Amino acid sequence: MRHFNKGSAFPENERAEFKLHGLLPPNIQSLDEQVRRAYEQYSSRPDDLAKNTFMASMKAQNEVLYYKLLETHIKEMFSIIYTPTEGDAIENYSRLFRKPEGCFLNIRDQASIEECLSSFGNEEDVDYIVVSDGEEILGIGDQGVGAILISIAKLVLTTLCAGIHPARQLPVVLDCGTDNERLLNDDLYLGLRQKRVRGEEYDEFVDRFIQVAQQRFPKAYIHFEDFGLNNAKRILDKYRSQIPCFNDDIQGTGCVTLAAMLAALHVSEVKLEDVRIVIFGSGTAGTGIADQIADTIATETRKSKEDASKQIWCIDKPGLLVKSMADSLTPAQTPFAREDTEWPEEQHKDLYSVIHNIKPHVLIGTSTKPKAFSEEIIREMARHVDRPIIFPLSNPTRLHEAQPQDIYNWSNGKALVATGSPFPPVEYHGMSYEIAECNNSTCFPGIGLGAVLSRSRLVSKKMLVAAVEALKARSPALKDPRLPLLPDVADVREISVDIAAAVIKCSVAEELAQEEDIPSDDADLKEWIRAQMWEPVYRSLVR
């Protein structure tokens, strides 16, 4: 089994006990030596997708070695095991398929959900479930059954970044069919070959999964991933008051973006109650960010959520969201629609007009519309505020709204920038500036770790605000405004400890925590958390 395999690192006593002599070469190697060999093999692969496939194969064989290799080369390999390369792997799932991993549930066989989940253990065996229906994957849209890979990738990150035990996780795909014609016409496609099911039957499928998962694994935390625009927030809102659940596209993206924004507001000396924000792209991510910002403004300034939402202007394909669009607005967009009387029709058709009229401090892009933040728009922002805060967040890199180097050039070096993918440092007037990455992986693993360790009954809004404050406190820009707005992913394990501690303290204060004897002292709490985080080391095996 991959959880126990040590390959060439099995010591002599275990080789004898488990009759491995003759099955392994005689030289016993250390984990570090195995990592060195594995990295050479990884580096020899011709392209990023081949490297991704190599890593998937290693994970299936030797989990400790897989995670130790990732931990050793985390910055280099992050884009291989997650965005953007994981998107390529998902698009080619049925063609690259070698060995199944995770739980495959399909809408045409709902009667077997309980039997399927029972294959993954008993009530004490699962802490963390990631589930996706594959409708909106990483900016590449509907990928059907290939969504199992995004569930797997997210769980890899919870282990790598927060020490969630890899044997206590469960990746799930809810196969409801697909509207992706390329997949439907592909003879090798492994999922249901039919159009995506929607409506009542879909809702019954999701609900049945939730109910059975809760019965089978009553302590498990459920993480929703890459559900479609019309379902993501609706499903989250339905279950967030019933079970400990989280949607990374909505809440994770919102939290990490908000942490970067709060750090930028500190640098620019703009108060939260005064900030004006434009969000370009009002899908799941954009409205999730808007909702998280509004929650935080309301919590920190004691404004109502409705008044807090008035500091945010959301733009989507038809233009600025206004109330006359009611029939076409999603439930997530509705709270941010403006009064039509504020906006003569000719003034809300394009981003430049909104920027010109609003004079925002913050511009956030989640549109997947490349180069949408033009020179004209950046210069218009910089004309009205001292330090424009500009976050082109769309993934993958080719879909970014603007390049960081251009933003610095067009704003005369005044902009505070964070992106959705890693970018190299930019040069401006002889100075080099590192670019912060709004990487959800600095946030969602710590939130999940805190919820799992406290056995929190729910994930409350205050717990998310606490997570944001913990992440913001790690911002290098708070000490030097020339440094990035968010910490480096290389420090993610200790960041996760800070976030988990903040989440646990909030869960205890709100009387949501069910775990007993949680330390109340900050230092003791963090040591308690660290002691329960899984590390990629070989453990002694006994029969």
UniProtKB/TrEMBL annotation:
Residues 59-240 form the Malic enzyme N-terminal domain. One of its GO terms (biological process) is malate metabolic process. It catalyses: oxaloacetate + H(+) = pyruvate + CO2; (S)-malate + NAD(+) = pyruvate + CO2 + NADH. (S)-malate binds at N395, N439. One of its GO terms (molecular function) is NAD binding. Its cofactor is Mn(2+); Mg(2+). The active site is at Y82 (proton donor), K154 (proton acceptor). GO terms for cellular component: cytosol; mitochondrion. Keywords: Metal-binding, NAD, Oxidoreductase. Pfam families: malic (PF00390), Malic_M (PF03949). PANTHER family: MALIC ENZYME-RELATED, NAD-DEPENDENT MALIC ENZYME, MITOCHONDRIAL. NCBIfam families: PRK13529.1. Belongs to the malic enzymes family. This is Malic enzyme.
